[in-house]
């Protein structure tokens, strides 16, 4: 639903007559133009995956990371303007270490999500600051179990079983809804996320992409880390096979 | 008599974990020099519904630290939406103790129960160290209890065994330490809640010369040797 907010969209401190803040909605469009980012909560942890669209063949594989560790137990996958994403990750890291120095225990994931959301929201309150042009999927594993949160440029943060942002989010959400997440382990989840990303990737519009994945689960000893190489290769192979089977129909 | 000497709690304080919770115990003497300013003080102070702290050293310093920590924990509980853990309470106590070590003189034992770790005891002595222990002792009277605990402490006690151990230990220390005395107070914290108990002089076990009054030296000379202590 696209509408032009002529006159009421010049500043983030202006409401339109129908109660919308257009600058925030435009910021969300920046997120929609980015490669798909997915997160799912399995029974023993979180898996996150990013469709990293490659701008040039000269780029080194593995560079321009889109998933960052925020603390030992949590990580963030970013969609939208990369530089904005770096700021949010830096802030989240700082909040996490500060919490631990004061309270002596790792920051609970819901507390971290709340702080990141407050920070993103802060930047929608002043005319001399522009909103962040990125959405973030935050996955962590604390003493209350694995949790997945998504923070949008408006500063809204919700907790999810499965979340997707970026170009292919609609298709990705449909695929995620088909999964039985409560019965799935993270090992299986990694394969499923890879399949979904390969599936929603638009071959026509975007040429090459690199799949980046991370997890935090019992198998990774509740530490947030890149998915191990052999599992990642297994996932990519399964995804390619699934695509071929689909094409073959 | 130096009535202007700072109120100090030459004290005996104890915290002990048992299978399912903790028992905190303390004597009740607050002294100003040689004068007993309060003979029935309550040295076991509440920080939250599920965490208490035993205070020793300067009465003023330990009270102000407790007050600050209670305030911070209250805000933390509201933000978190659930009770604070014993570890968080102990960490806040030690940050205050450590960062103000030049100005404070207080040894604290933080004890409580939370749903993640169960019953826990943390010792925060003078310099602001924090150490998690199955049991902790503090205050001037604790000097007399190190050997006693080495012998009497065991893992996996029941609630009643733990409380009896604490009462016995505090009363032993009160018998030997001039700066500890009065009554014994205990606080038991577990998943069901908090129970406060009070043991006045007549409820405490008797020790050594307290057992038999001596009317004449002849009684002492003719009597057999003291019984060895039974545990």
Automatic annotation (TrEMBL), chain A:
Main location: cytoplasm
Transmembrane portions of the chain: none
Keywords: Cytoplasm, Nucleus, Proteasome
Name the record gives this protein: Proteasome subunit alpha type
Subunit structure: The 20S proteasome core is composed of 28 subunits that are arranged in four stacked rings, resulting in a barrel-shaped structure. The two end rings are each formed by seven alpha subunits, and the two central rings are each formed by seven beta subunits.
Residue intervals of the Proteasome alpha-type subunits domain: 8-30
Source organism of this protein record: Hevea brasiliensis (Para rubber tree)
Alphabetized PANTHER family for the sequence: PROTEASOME SUBUNIT ALPHA/BETA
Automatic annotation (TrEMBL), chain B:
Chief location bin: cytoplasm
Listed transmembrane segments: none
Xref: SUPFAM superfamilies: N-terminal nucleophile aminohydrolases (Ntn hydrolases) (SSF56235)
Compartmental location: Cytoplasm; Nucleus
InterPro entries per the UniProt record, alphabetical: Ntn_hydrolases_N (IPR029055), Pept_T1A_subB (IPR000243), Proteasome_bsu_CS (IPR016050), Proteasome_sua/b (IPR001353), Proteasome_suB-type (IPR023333)
The entry's keywords: Cytoplasm, Hydrolase, Nucleus, Protease, Proteasome, Threonine protease
CDD domains: proteasome_beta_type_6 (cd03762)
Reaction it catalyzes: Cleavage of peptide bonds with very broad specificity
Protein role: Component of the proteasome, a multicatalytic proteinase complex which is characterized by its ability to cleave peptides with Arg, Phe, Tyr, Leu, and Glu adjacent to the leaving group at neutral or slightly basic pH. The proteasome has an ATP-dependent proteolytic activity.
Subunit architecture: Component of the proteasome complex.
Family of the protein in this entry: Belongs to the peptidase T1B family.
Entry protein name: Proteasome subunit beta
Native source species: Hevea brasiliensis (Para rubber tree)
């Amino acid at each position: 639903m696209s509408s032009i907010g002529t006159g009421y969209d010049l500043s983030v401190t202006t409401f339109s007559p129908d109660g919308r803040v257009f600058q925030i909605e435009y910021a969300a469009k920046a997120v929609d133009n980015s490669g798909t980012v997915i997160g799912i909560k399995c029974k023993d942890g979180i898996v996150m995956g990013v469709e990293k669209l490659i701008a040039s063949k000269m780029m080194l594989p593995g560079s321009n990371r889109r998933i960052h560790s925020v603390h030992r137990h949590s990580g963030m996958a970013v969609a939208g303007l990369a530089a904005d994403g770096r700021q949010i990750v830096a802030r989240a890291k700082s909040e996490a270490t500060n919490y631990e120095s004061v309270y002596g225990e790792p920051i609970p994931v819901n507390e971290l999500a709340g702080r990141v959301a407050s920070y993103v929201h802060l930047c929608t309150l002043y005319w001399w600051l522009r909103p962040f042009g990125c959405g973030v999927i935050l996955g962590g594993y604390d003493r209350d179990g694995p949790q997945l949160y998504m923070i949008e440029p408006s500063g809204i943060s919700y907790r999810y079983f499965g979340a997707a942002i970026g170009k292919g989010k609609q298709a990705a959400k449909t695929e995620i809804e088909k999964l039985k997440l409560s019965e799935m382990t993270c090992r299986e989840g990694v394969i499923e996320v890879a399949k979904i990303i390969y599936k929603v990737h638009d071959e026509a519009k975007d040429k090459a992409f690199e799949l980046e994945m991370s997890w935090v689960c019992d198998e990774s000893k509740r530490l947030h880390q890149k998915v191990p190489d052999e599992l990642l290769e297994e996932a990519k192979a399964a995804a390619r096979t699934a695509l071929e089977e689909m094409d073959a129909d | 008599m130096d009535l202007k000497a700072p109120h100090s709690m030459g004290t005996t304080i104890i915290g002990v974990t048992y299978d399912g919770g903790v028992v905190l115990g303390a004597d009740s003497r607050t002294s100003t020099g040689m004068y007993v300013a309060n003979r029935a003080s309550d040295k076991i102070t509440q920080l939250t519904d599920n965490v208490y702290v035993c205070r020793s050293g300067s009465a003023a310093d330990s009270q102000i630290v407790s007050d600050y920590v209670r305030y911070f924990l209250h805000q933390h509980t509201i933000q978190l939406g659930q009770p604070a853990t014993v570890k968080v309470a102990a960490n806040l106590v030690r940050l205050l103790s450590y960062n103000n070590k030049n100005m404070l003189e207080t040894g604290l034992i933080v004890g409580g129960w939370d749903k993640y770790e169960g019953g826990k005891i943390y010792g925060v002595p003078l310099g602001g160290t924090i150490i998690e222990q199955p049991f902790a002792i503090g205050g001037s009277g604790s000097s007399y209890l190190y050997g006693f605990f080495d012998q009497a402490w065991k893992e996996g006690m029941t609630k009643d065994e733990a409380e009896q151990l604490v009462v016995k230990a505090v009363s032993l220390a009160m018998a030997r330490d001039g700066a500890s005395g009065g009554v014994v107070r205990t606080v038991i914290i577990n998943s069901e809640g908090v129970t406060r108990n009070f043991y006045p002089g007549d409820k405490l076990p008797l020790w050594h010369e307290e057992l038999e009054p001596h009317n004449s030296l002849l009684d002492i000379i003719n009597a057999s040797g003291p019984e060895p202590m039974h545990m």
